[in-house]
Amino acid sequence: MTGTFACDPGDDKLMWVWAVLVGDTWKSHGKDVAGCLQHLPGCFGRAPRNIQEKINSGYKAWEFTLYLYRLALGLLYEILPEDYWHHFCKLVRGVHLISQHSITHDELQIATHCLLEFIDEYEVLYYQSRVERLHFVHQSIHALSHYGNEVVAKGPLICASQWTMERTIGNLVEEIRQHSTPYANLGQCAVRCAQLNALKALIPSIDPDTNKSPLTRWSKDVGGGYALQKAQERTRHNATAIKSLTICQYLETYHPSSSDFKFVTCDGIFRCKCRPNARRSRNVKLHLNGKTQFAVVFYFFEIQDHPDSSNLVPLALVSLYSPPDHSLLRKSIMAIKSVVAMIPHKINEEEQFFMFEQPGMDVAKMEGYLVDNEDDEDTELAQ
To answer: Positive or negative CA dihedral for 155, 156, 161, 164?
Structure first.
């Protein structure tokens, strides 16, 4: 593997206690990263591939983002020494807060504090004031100390990120049709794009997307920024006794006149389409009894609230996750506000889950409804 940094003759690799991703551990870690694929919703974009095999073979910037600031925190637990893992948590939390589309003064203080602590502890844990390790301190480490001031001066950094420019460059390159004079052709494409955008801004009615619904065809708006998508099974399927009982109890409490009792008591309800080995998009964050909890959605369905009414009430059957491991939560100091991915991971031979949200999620919400890619397991609900 390339992409490593040199060990000075005056240093000793045996003293690098943090160098744990080597040999079989590195191979196993790469497989763990690739194994997370089916647990990442399609709206996350490209999922990280096996980093051990692909790190120097076109590993995309977005793959590094998902890996470094989302997956690695869970996958490196009990692999990195505890002090180094806790130190890494400060970087993740600081970047998580500083990358928001909007940030409060208190959050900015917390982010700045985490990043400054990360810099100071980096020199203690890695550099250790040794001249032969001076090359450990890259410019990117020092740059973290300026993030807080840059947010005060320019606003949230996500608004000035390189992602927008890279996307624009990619779009313009796709439009090149004259390869003999590519730069002149590219310039004309950029001019026409700017002129078209200016016309749309002056006369919005000429833009065909102005009055276009954010919903996809045949989808149904169910309120709260959610929509049921078209895909559904055509016939009813048997449900387990406990699921049927749960639905019956809900109907008795909230919709006692519903005509769907006859289907539920016969262990039959509509279920969503599922495909094996598809990417999963059914882990949700919800507020229940005044508390924030997390659940996995079994399926979405609709019931008729009254025999004489054509109104269909959208519902979801979910199973709650157990409460978080408070000791681990305190160690990780992660201020997660929403859950969109649940990754299974063994800790002390016990199957547990770690959760994270999509980087830049608040920016993505500006697009309207988020519809997962076609290879997702669940396409019934889009946000």
So the answer is: negative
Pull the structure tokens for residue 260.
């769907």
- Lowest mean pLDDT segment, chosen from 51-60, 74-83, 93-102, 315-324: 315-324
CA distance to 133, 252, 277, 284, per residue, from 229 (Å): 55, 27, 21, 17
Q: What DSSP assignment string belongs to 261-272?
A: HHHHTTTEE---
Reported as a single tens digit per residue, the pLDDT across 21-67 is 999 999 999 999 999 888 888 778 888 999 999 988 888 888 998 99
Instruction: Concatenate the DSSP letters of all residues of 305-319 into one string.
Output: SSTT---EEEEEEEE
Residue 149, classified by CB atoms within 10 Å of its CB into exposed (0-12), middle (13-18) or buried (19+), is exposed
| Cβ proximity of 85 and 69 under 8 Å | no
- Report d(CA 57, CA 60) in Å as an integer: 9
Coil/strand/helix, residue 232? coil
Cα angle for residues 321, 323, 324 (degrees, 5° grid): 110
The model's pTM: 0.71
How many residues in the chain? 383
